[in-house]
Amino acid sequence: MAHIINGIAVSQDIKNELRAQIDVLKEQSINVCLATVLVGDDAASHSYVKSKIKNCEELGIISRHFGLLQETSQTDLLQLIDSLNSDKSVNGILVQLPLPSHINEDTVINAINADKDVDGFTPASTGRLLIGQEGFVPCTPAGIIELLKRNNINTIGAEVVVVGRSNIVGKPVANLLLRKGQGADATVTICHSRSKNIKEHTLRADILIAAIGKAKFITADMVKEDAVVIDVGVNRIGIAPSGKAILAGDVDYVEVTKKASYITPVPGGVGPMTIAMLMKNTVKAAQIQAGLI
Ligand code: NAP
Q1: Which residues are designated catalytic?
Q2: Pairing of strands 228-231, 262-263
């Protein structure tokens, strides 16, 4: 039976470490501040932003929230980002995605100052990651790396197969694991919806990362004995009598647990790490802007 990787516990450890760093910054009169921008009424986006604000409050990070109407123009949104870019009291800027269809997401993300890009989505941050330079790493991939590290899972020379090639999970986690001489050094394969014979690839994986968005896509017959399985997927598969959504990952958890050496559950695996890494990026932004690192 697989060891269950506890993302809640690891994220708490990270938040405790951050609390200490935030206190040190406060002693130097530096109050860490994250600006969150949410356009429209999407219920899931509202709940994600609420949770990010709650985490800020718990850690002593100031959060400044900008809730904009669905019909907000791209020009107005860009003006807000411009003002946050030049506001010295704001360390990090988070624009919650998706944006309404009349707004070009790439244009908006590109407008965020790379020094405040705590989501790590700007082309500048993406480029830095690709060539192994220091910068902001997208939170979910950064969280996956922390989960591997803190569970002493070796990636050097390991066969890693990532299923999914999105800009926010698949591609950045693959690039992080490919990095030379920074403790990663894996051999990485990326699969996607046009890949042939995915099972042939996944069966080679010492570490299998599923970021697809399809419930229970990865079945036990696709997993090598004793593989490490990281399940990024969050799929709503029903509603409980309490009204709460029933979630499933991209991995058939019950069956794969019998075969893997380590596995992340959904919920309670990768999810809590994403917010912890957002908090970490925000503290890092404050430290960089204060010339401390
Ligand atoms: P996405 O942008 O929709 O990308 C999904 C990827 O899966 C694409 O690359 C797609 O291939 C690939 N794919 C889809 N069907 C496939 C198939 N049949 N075979 C092989 N590959 C297939 O999704 P995402 O944003 O990366 O998110 C993936 C999952 O992770 C979602 O469930 C999302 O909710 C979850 N997520 C969780 C967190 C967290 O904090 N826990 C954070 C982010 C995302 P193509 O490129 O060819 O279309």
Answers
A1: 52, 96, 119
A2: parallel
